[in-house]
Write a structure and sequence with these properties.
- The chain is of the alpha+beta class.
- The chain folds into four domains: 82 residues, no CATH class; 91 residues, PDZ domain (Pdz3 Domain, Roll); 186 residues, Alpha-Beta Complex (2-enoyl-CoA Hydratase, Chain A, domain 1), CATH 3.90.226; 84 residues.
- The chain contains 17 helices and 23 strands.
- Strands 3, 4, 5, 6, 7 and 8 form a six-stranded antiparallel beta sheet that branches. A six-stranded mixed beta sheet has the order 10-11-12-15-16-23, with helices on both faces.
- The radius of gyration is 26 Å and the shape is globular.
């Protein structure tokens, strides 16, 4: 008869057991119910059954707990065990802590609770780095460069300050009324602002403008829960009463998100009903096909999709459908190659298990996921030859989306890696000049190098020779983003953007047709 298992021990080791059950289910074929009415009780029983069957895991953990020479962080042990198990799976299946899950949900839903600001920490002080339009912060008169001295009578300056303290106050639904003590930029007298936190919508598809009378540009930052709605508002604003419009969809650096949002946007680009846009399939998931609805609201003629090596998942679904149906052209660099469907399974400790359950395929049958080898699973590269659905152009499988027109990055990628320092440097200049109104000449690459060396102890002066022009563009562009907004930021870069140049050539040159393009060219 199996040894009786103490229920408290089961609950204590529950995070570890859930990962163990899932891992064994995937590796050894153990059947787990991942349907929408998924029950954590079922999973607990399965985990309990596994431990009862063998006993080694529970026995080892019990010996450690009762006999080890030093005290141990039991949560850390559980997380380490989970991480080790999930390492046997694909790189995108992982354990998410409660705080990480909250961040994940906010990004996916496209909204969060707060007052509508972005902050950064410099010299042990938090500064307002961006104020979002039409939010409590903007209405309350908060400005870029204001220092946050205290919140709800809690001091936020000095070495003891942390972002978690800010987050605690901003996210507290029980106490939405916030009392902020701010030091305006260049002032010596603080001011107190009383604001009520609320649900803030994160822009994901409202950076949009007309490049000329008949060409519209829309950038999709990610596919969150409100991206389709924002996309349609942007299209309505740009097209208005015009009978038709050409469209550039910028998916560079877009990591993906919700599949339904990507599919809904695709449906607006195909006038015909029941065109296969993508499908998903997995060992424990039946094939699911996603089709166009045929219910379009605007006449969009030629389409160009911009991608780069950081375009992933939902971005690749959009690009793949446009390419496979010869609906438009893809310009840029090969995409990331992430074609795995993942689901989030909440755990009792507030964390969650993010698990890969299926794979994405384009309409022609190309697997989007790139090849990689793993201890427990190998995703083979799809090397079959594929052709587009209408013009039968050759398109490459093997993971990711290969563009129809290859473009070298508009800016030096090596320099681009140092963009993380730029916002800190800009804030430093604002503090130094006591003004949030800067001119382009106020910001220099040389001074930024000196700032980074002084504050971050990293010598990047060697960049000056190779990156001065590019970093100068990034610095001024980021200042425009902070002080004016994303539209100004995108306008700034479009004037020197090889991707946009290629798109304009396609729109203007009547001899350049889809039939003349192939990813082999």
């Amino acid at each position: 008869m199996p040894e009786k298992v103490n229920r408290n021990q089961i609950r204590f080791y529950m995070p570890f057991m859930v990962a163990l059950a899932a891992a064994i289910g995937l590796i050894a074929g153990y059947k787990i119910d991942f349907s929408n009415d998924y029950s954590l009780i079922k999973l607990e029983k399965q985990a309990q059954l596994i431990i009862t069957r063998d006993g080694r895991i529970e026995e080892i953990l019990r010996f450690i707990e009762t006999n080890y020479v030093d005290s141990l962080d039991q949560d850390e042990i559980a997380i380490d065990a989970i991480t080790h198990i999930l390492r046997q799976l694909d790189p995108h299946s992982n354990y998410i802590t409660a705080e990480e899950l909250e961040d994940h949900n906010e990004k996916m839903e496209g909204k969060y609770r707060g007052i509508g600001v972005e902050t950064l920490e410099l010299n042990d002080t938090f500064y307002i780095a961006r104020v979002i339009e039409d939010t409590p912060a903007e209405k309350g008169g908060i400005k870029v460069g204001d220092a946050i001295i205290a919140m709800n009578d809690e001091d936020l300056t000095g070495v003891n300050s942390s972002f978690s303290i800010l987050r605690k106050h901003f996210r507290n639904k029980e106490k939405p009324l916030l009392k902020l003590v701010l030091m305006p930029l260049g002032d010596t007298i603080s001011k107190t602002v009383n604001l009520e936190s609320q649900e803030i919508i994160v822009p994901s598809a409202n950076t949009s403008f007309l490049i000329n009378d008949d060409i519209a540009y829309i950038k999709l930052i990610r596919f969150s829960g409100n991206t389709y709605e924002q996309f349609m508002k942007s299209v309505e604003k740009l097209i208005g009463d015009k009978p038709s419009m050409h469209l550039i969809i910028d998916l560079r650096d877009n990591p993906g998100g919700y599949l339904p949002e990507a599919v809904n946007i695709l449906s607006q680009l195909f006038q015909d009903k029941n065109k296969l846009l993508c499908y998903t399939e997995g060992l424990n998931r039946k094939r699911s096909d996603y089709y166009s609805t045929g219910k379009t609201f605007y006449n969009i003629e030629k389409i160009v999709v911009l991608i780069n090596e950081y375009s992933a998942s939902g971005s690749e679904i959009v690009a793949g459908a446009i390419q496979d149906w010869d609906r438009g052209i893809i310009i840029g660099q090969p995409s990331y190659g992430k074609g795995l469907v993942q689901e989030i399974f909440p755990l009792k400790n507030g964390g969650a298990l993010r698990l890969t359950v299926a794979k994405y395929y384009t309409p022609s049958g190309r697997l989007i996921q790139k090849s990689y080898n793993n201890i427990a699973k190998t995703f083979e590269a799809d090397t079959n030859e594929f052709k587009t659905k209408l013009l039968e152009r050759k398109v490459q499988g093997g993971g990711g989306i290969m563009p129809d027109v290859f473009v070298k990055s508009s800016f030096n990628d090596y320099c681009y890696n140092y963009r993380e320092y730029i916002d800190y440097y800009i804030m430093h200049k604002m503090i130094q000049t006591a003004s949030n109104k800067l001119e382009e000449d106020d910001l220099s690459v040389k001074e930024m190098n000196e700032f980074v060396y002084f504050y971050f102890n990293e010598d990047i002066s060697g960049l000056e020779k190779d990156c001065e022009a590019d970093l100068g563009q990034y610095i001024w562009g980021n200042y425009l983003r902070i002080s004016v907004g994303m539209d100004a930021y995108e306008h700034h870069f479009i004037s020197n953007d090889a991707y946009i140049d290629e798109a304009m050539l396609f729109f203007k040159n009547e001899k350049t047709t889809l039939a003349s393009l192939s990813v082999e060219n």
